[in-house]
Automatic annotation (TrEMBL):
Alphabetic keyword roster: Repeat, WD repeat
Name assigned to this protein: WD40-like Beta Propeller Repeat family protein
Source lineage: Bacteria, Bacillati, Actinomycetota, Actinomycetes, Mycobacteriales
Spans annotated as Disordered: 170-222
Listed InterPro entries: WD40/YVTN_repeat-like_dom_sf, WD40_PAC1, WD40_repeat_CS, WD40_rpt
WD repeat spans: 20-51, 53-94, 94-126
A Pfam family recorded for this sequence: WD40
PANTHER family: F-BOX AND WD REPEAT DOMAIN CONTAINING 7, WD40 REPEAT PROTEIN
Length: 222
């Protein structure tokens, strides 16, 4: 869809899954399938690019391109995080988490990966998913549905602003700017998307099934 006019661009793509990610140059999208595969599409031609990326043993739930568009990270119900070469489709690395991987994100400089997991943890990985970076971050009482890095560097003003539902009070964010935030518990899923000009993005957190506000949490990036 054209974001300004709301009109469709080209014919609909027949996708086998609900998770999609745009490449940084907006020329391709990756679609995660319920069958555990990932298919890349050329948005200019509307055709698939190469063969599906196969390896996951469960539905692909989370996808993201690296900032330079050369890698794709995927998270699955099979409790693995995998990194792929976006040009060749070859696997680069993978790691096992403690639960289904519900959200993934690359750091702005492409050197770190974050995965949000159904066991209530967030884990940092190196860009190739060959090893963990530091211990898992804990504190959430339920599923972590979304994770995002701040688009600004350390020493800059805070770039991610979140608010608690019900009271509307800001969730504290360190002034260093090296933070991200994630939802937990029974909140409605949301996504914090950095803006192109680096200005603070907006993020909404829905109420839980029991009507209890669910706060976001934030951690400093090592």
């Amino acid at each position: 869809m054209d974001a300004e006019t709301g009109h469709p661009i080209g014919d609909p793509l027949k996708l086998n899954g609900a998770e999609v990610a745009f490449s940084p140059d907006n020329s391709r999208i990756a679609c995660g399938g319920n069958n555990g595969t990932i298919q890349i599409w050329d948005l200019n031609t509307g055709r698939t690019v190469g063969k599906p990326l196969a390896g996951h043993q469960g539905p692909v739930i989370a996808l993201a391109f690296s900032p330079d568009g050369r890698r794709i990270i995927s998270g699955s119900a099979d409790q693995t995080v995998r990194v792929w070469d976006a040009a060749t489709g070859q696997p680069i690395g993978q790691q096992t988490t403690g639960g289904s991987v519900l959200s993934v994100a690359f750091s702005p400089d492409g050197t770190r990966i974050a995965s949000a997991n159904s066991d209530g943890t967030i884990q940092l990985w190196d860009a190739d998913a060959t090893h963990a970076v530091g211990p898992a971050m804990t504190g959430h009482a339920g599923n972590v549905y979304s994770v995002a890095f701040s688009p600004t560097a350390r020493g800059s003003p805070p770039a991610v602003r979140t608010r608690r539902c019900g009271c509307g009070m800001p969730t504290p964010v360190s002034p260093s700017g090296g933070h991200w935030s994630a939802t937990d518990g029974r909140s409605e899923p949301w996504r914090s998307v950095p803006t192109a000009n680096g200005s603070p993005p907006a993020a909404g957190i829905g109420p839980s099934d029991y009507g209890v506000p669910n706060p976001a949490r934030s951690w400093a990036s090592p």
